[in-house]
UniProtKB/TrEMBL annotation:
[4Fe-4S] cluster 2 binds at C171, C175, C178. Residues 390-458 form the TRAM domain. This is Ribosomal protein uS12 methylthiotransferase RimO. Its cofactor is [4Fe-4S] cluster. It is found in: Cytoplasm. Residues 30-140 form the MTTase N-terminal domain. The gene is rimO. Belongs to the methylthiotransferase family. RimO subfamily. Catalyzes the methylthiolation of an aspartic acid residue of ribosomal protein uS12.
Length: 458
């Protein structure tokens, strides 16, 4: 599990909220703190909860001591994630004492209360009403219509110039290593109009980049029984692309209709970026994972995407050390990576998850073998990344400015870089006129293993 980075974690980012909202806390106003763990989907849930609480008159506390109660939004994807969530709950109990637990781990309430019986309440993922009920019971609201003014875009825990846009909940896949469908249920897509209304409001409020997220983005809308389109994500991507913001698609499974997204990327309506969880390349491993075992056809698809959109950036994640993985199967993965030449790659060592069917598979791989394979995989991925970035030296590309530090160094991202998971482009001179959210042309003059450096062009 990854925690939201220090400047974006809700429990730390809340220090910005009182300044950003321009409010002064009146005497007696109830306050709530929040700790958010896990993925961007959980971050969106945290934003929605805080927005509702803010509208009801609650102040948001930047620390434990100033909060009347604390919400911990948990992650439960891996056993290590569960352990970190329990640790965060324990810390909140020790520092504050009044804790409401929500999120993915909340789907296992006995697991939480068994470790921390003093928590006030436990709710599952995206159960917003139950969270609010628990907060109301612990800390009754005291709304003041003359003071509690909610910004048009609600409470945001990301920088003002980009925002996550969640388009669905749940997943219909049955991967043996994953318990997300058990925690978050089957696919439930938000209505097209609701997604577009939220996106339009975000862009009107100054958001320059929308990061589209779900558990299975390319399956968006396929749960609608009365749908007219076979693949509703195509129409949604087209409409989002008309808003004038950067549109970045995450967690896209490589269904055949994904090829129909590529023209929009080539034309500039959607960023030429696909985040696709391939997970492995050997067909036998993929079958044991209960995932589509078509690695060879995937290479053909990648080649087709690149023919139509040569600038496309492909990122993916993989699992090494899956139960039964042989050295030959792992070598196949390395050979596939050589051929695929993916731009951005992440890798995880397989880990048992309570409730996952993969736990019962035979021939689990020893930890030292997992570590060796992870090291070898990441060494190859790093070499590919370094070569691809070196080829960008001398090119001019648009970047979005994320931050300018006290030394005047601007941290930026290209169209091929998502915040917090990909690389950065740094500008270390003539940055006086730049502000976060600016999109400017930059000439790349230096490349590293994962990052670029450049100077303003023109």
């Amino acid at each position: 599990m990854t925690q939201n980075p220090p400047d974006l974690r809700p429990d730390l980012a809340n220090a910005r909220l009182s300044r950003d909202l321009g409010t002064v806390r009146p005497a007696g106003q109830p306050t709530i703190g929040m700790v958010s763990l896990g993925c961007p989907k959980a971050l969106v849930d945290s934003e929605r909860i805080l927005t509702r609480l803010r509208a009801e008159g609650y102040a948001i506390s930047p620390d434990y001591a100033g909060a009347d109660a604390v919400i911990v939004n948990t992650c439960g994807f891996l056993d290590s994630a569960k352990a970190e969530s329990l640790s965060a709950i324990g810390e909140a109990l020790a520092e504050n004492g009044r804790v409401v637990v929500t999120g993915c781990l909340g789907a296992e309430p006995d697991y939480i209360t068994g470790a921390h019986p003093r928590v006030l309440a436990v709710t599952g993922p995206h159960q917003y009403e139950q969270v609010l009920d628990a907060v109301h019971k612990a800390v009754p609201p005291a709304p003041d219509p003359f003071v509690d003014l909610l910004p048009a875009r609600g409470v945001s825990l990301t920088p003002r110039h980009y925002s996550y846009l969640k388009i669905s909940e749940g997943c219909n896949h049955k991967c043996r290593f994953c318990i997300i469908p058990d925690m978050r249920g089957r696919l439930q897509s938000r209505p097209h109009r609701a997604v577009m209304r939220e996106a339009e409001k975000l862009v009107e409020a100054g958001v320059r980049e929308l990061l589209v997220i779900s558990q299975d983005t390319s399956a968006y809308g396929t749960d609608w029984k009365d749908r007219e389109d076979k693949a509703p994500i195509l129409a949604l991507a087209r409409d989002l692309g008309s808003l004038g913001a950067w549109i970045r698609l995450h967690y896209v499974y490589p269904y055949p209709h994904v090829r129909e997204l590529i023209p929009a990327m080539a034309e500039g309506g959607v960023l030429p970026y696909l985040d696709i969880p391939f997970q492995h390349a050997h067909p036998d491993v993929l079958r044991r994972m209960a995932r589509p075992a078509a690695a060879a056809r995937t290479l053909d698809e990648i080649a087709a995407w690149r023919r139509e959109c040569p600038d496309i950036t492909l990122r993916s994640t993989f699992i090494v050390g899956y139960p039964g993985e042989t050295e030959a199967e792992f070598e196949t993965l390395l050979d596939w990576l050589d051929e695929a030449q993916l731009d951005r790659v992440g890798c995880f060592q397989y880990e048992n998850v309570a409730g996952a069917r993969s736990n019962d598979l035979p021939d689990h791989v020893p930890d030292e073998v997992k570590q060796d394979r992870w090291d070898r995989f990441m060494s190859k991925a790093q070499a590919i990344s370094e070569a691809k970035l070196a080829a960008k030296v001398g090119k001019v590309m648009d970047v979005i400015v994320d931050e300018i530090d006290e030394d005047g160094i601007a941290t930026c991202r290209t169209k091929g870089d998502a915040p917090e998971i990909d690389g950065n482009l740094f500008i270390d001179e003539e940055t006086d006129g730049l502000t976060p959210g600016d999109i400017v042309p930059v000439e790349v003059d230096e490349a590293g293993e994962y990052d670029l450096w450049g100077r303003l062009a023109g």
